[in-house]
Amino acid sequence: MAGHSKWAQIKRQKAKNDAARGQVFTKMAREITVSVREGGSGDIEANFRLRTAVQRAKAAGVPNDNIERAIQKGLGAGGENDRYEAIQYEGYGPGGVAVMIDALTDNRNRTAGDIRSYFNKCDGNLGESGCVNWMFNKKGVLQLSEVTDSDTLMLEALDAGAEDIQEDGEQVSVFTEPEHFEAVCKALEHYTIESAEITYVPLNTVEVSELDVGKKLLKLLDLLEEHDDVQNVYANMNIDEDLLNTLSS
User: Fold this and answer.
1) What distance lies between CA 231 and its chain's CA centroid?
2) What is the mean pLDDT of the segment spanning 87-102?
3) Euclidean distance between CA atoms 178 and 199, whole angstroms
4) Which residues touch 217 (CB under 8 Å, ≥6 apart)?
5) Phi/psi of residue 94, nearest 5 degrees
């Protein structure tokens, strides 16, 4: 798989400031609620998707009370009957960068209209289902830190079913097939796991080196990530480091 060493850039996650914290909490709570409903259980031990969602929520600083309310909402407490539909959108951003979006929405027309307008505003194109999906592989990805013995980690991960391990400075990324993700998570739970999720890894990346293209691309990703219905955004971009520093300054 291309781009392992650039994983933090490819699967771009902005640092969330205090002003955006409420929005992050809302998205995490929605994911937890849907995980309960689709997994058929509010038991974290019995529902792996729920357990993963709760771990992500805690890593993002979501209070335990919020997590418990989201679980109860998924179980139907309070008679709340809002139903979120999982939808994936695909398109091309500036510079021909492939973009995929995971959304949870209770209004398909509203969400599709918003996302289409973002692509148009940033010189991109929202495409049909399947237009860029083939450029990505669905994988389990664990991000570990404070690894003191990478050789031992590699043996443990491979024995549990991992298919690749990549070191990038002080961080180690472990890649698995989705069906082996839970087993690898359990095998490595004694390490410091910064994040663990089933996500999309690009088969190849598109180099972005022009200032105007980079600016429009990051604007598109910002708009998408800030939308209430959008849970995850994936792009096969590889932005030149100097350009990235210029855009971030």
Assistant:
1) 7
2) 95
3) 9
4) 93, 94, 95, 97, 122, 208, 235, 237, 239
5) -55, 145
SS3 148: coil
Question: Domains (ranges, CATH) in the chain?
Answer: 15-79 (1.10.10.200), 85-133+204-248 (3.30.70.980), 135-202 (3.30.70.980)
Those residues with Cβ within 8 angstroms of residue 150's Cβ, 6 or more apart along the chain or in another chain: 165, 167, 172
The dihedral formed by the CA atoms of 203, 104, 106 and 32, expressed in degrees to the nearest 10:
160
Q: How far apart are CA 209 and CA 28, in angstroms?
A: 34
Per-residue pLDDT band for 59 (boundaries 50, 70, 90) equals confident
pLDDT in tens, 152-211: 999 999 999 999 998 877 789 999 999 999 899 989 989 888 888 888 999 999 999 899
**3-state class (DSSP) for residue 167:** strand
- For residue 239 the two structure tokens come to 């932005």
Closest CA to 101 of 62, 127, 65, 72: 127
Pairwise pLDDT comparison (87 vs 17), residue with the higher score = 87
Instruction: Please name which of 221, 225, 175, 217 lies closest in space to residue 200, comparing C-alpha atoms.
Output: 175
Q: Which residue do the tokens 């990235």 mark?
A: 244
Give this prediction's pTM: 0.79
Count Cα atoms within 13 angstroms, Cβ side, for 219.
Answer: 15
| Amino acid in the structure at residue 8 | A
Kindly list the strands in the beta sheet with 164-168, ordered across the sheet, starting from the edge strand earlier in the chain: 164-168, 171-176, 136-145, 192-202
